[in-house]
Amino acid sequence: MQKFSKFLLVAIFLCAQLISFPASAHNKRIKALIISGQNNHNWRVSHRALKLILDQSDLFEVDILLTPGRGGDMQQFNPDFEQYDVVLLDYNGDRWSASTEQAFVEYARKGGGIVVYHAANNAFAQWEEFNKIIALGGWEGRNEKSGPYYYLVNGVGVLDTSEGTGGSHGAQREFPMNCRKKKHPITKGLPDGWIHARDELYDRMRGPANIKHLLYSGYADASKGGSGREEPLVFTVDYGKARIFHIMLGHCGESLDNNPAMQCAGFQTLILRGAEWAATGKVKQPVPTDFPTSESASLRRSYKAPQN
Ligand code: ZN
User: Fold this and answer.
1) How many Å lie between the centroid of ligand 1 and the Cα of residue 122?
2) Does residue 291 lie within any of the structural domains?
3) Which domain holds residue 51?
4) What is the rounded CA–CA span in Å between residue 151 and residue 209?
5) Exposed, middle or buried, 294 (CB in 10 Å: 0-12/13-18/19+)?
């Protein structure tokens, strides 16, 4: 009888322990690394915004690694990529050391998860393997030697090898996002079209164009300084076993409080879903209640999704 009571007490104690833990403690968080430290953009704000978005979802455990500044000693920058389920690139600057570049390529080849965010696709114009990892890039001397332009004509992808610089954008504005693949874990359940908050719409990007699935495109209105084409904006990349999510959106504002492109609920949803997919191949997140509609944009001032 006494033995039985002891057993019962232990059982009750263990149950109480389980109940008292927050639910998230039971779910293994996704290990994410944000790389920043040099950029022609406001990286001091953008990498913090990305961390806020990931942290507040409770799905990720996030580390930040900043490179040395411009002209600094890149031998000091040696991330242990293999520790992470997903690596988010918020970096546009000096080449990394040969060993770090090799380690990054190895990480990708072994099936690593990568998120290419906004001007990270300006980086490393001369690094051939990096350009295969991003599929399309712009600026930094890119031209017809970098690969074709890729855009949509009547909804069909076109490779255009004509001469010209890679990378431009018109005036910042709100613009509609057009879904190009509804049956993908990242887009599943999201509306076909929605208004993205004020941002740059990258156009005339070029590269190897090894896009796996184009998820969203946007129209680069020539009257606003754009290419006049339907441009790829959010896609996955065909690169061996790697899971690569490339999002051209998210031009960083002057501060966390004045940062509409990154405060957009649509942008944040895509970052979270894209990072989860890159890490695991699945997306378990529900559609947030504040997702933008085809009529209007939706901002999260606090970078936090409403509780469903
Ligand atoms: Zn920008």
Assistant:
1) 10
2) no
3) 36-60+83-280
4) 10
5) exposed
**Vertex 45 angle, CA 134 and 233, to 5°:** 30
294 is a domain residue: no
208: Cβ contacts below 8 Å, ≥ 6 apart: 131, 132, 135, 147
Any domain includes 148: yes
Q: How many whole angstroms from 33 Cα to the centroid of ligand 1?
A: 21
**Whether 89 contacts 35, CB under 8 Å:** yes
- Averages of pLDDT over each 10 residues, the chain, 308 residues: 49 47 64 98 98 98 98 98 98 98 98 98 98 98 98 97 98 98 98 97 98 98 98 98 98 98 98 98 97 98 90
Pairing of strands 156-160, 86-89: unpaired
* Domain contains 271: yes
User: In this structure, what are the phi and psi dihedrals at residue 191, rounded to the nearest 5 degrees?
Assistant: -65, 150
> What distance in Å separates the CA atoms of residue 37 and residue 226, rounded to the nearest whole number?
29
Distance from the alpha carbon of residue 269 to the mean position of ligand 1, in angstroms: 19
Overall domain count for the chain: 1
Give every CB contact of residue 80 below 8 A, 6+ residues apart in sequence.
none
d(CA 39, ligand 1 centre) in Å: 10
Q: What is the enclosing helix (H) or strand (E) of 173?
A: strand 173-179
C-alpha of residue 169 to centroid of ligand 1, in Å: 9
- The alpha carbon of 248 and the centre of ligand 1 are apart by a number of angstroms equal to 9
| CATH code for position 209 | 3.40.50.880
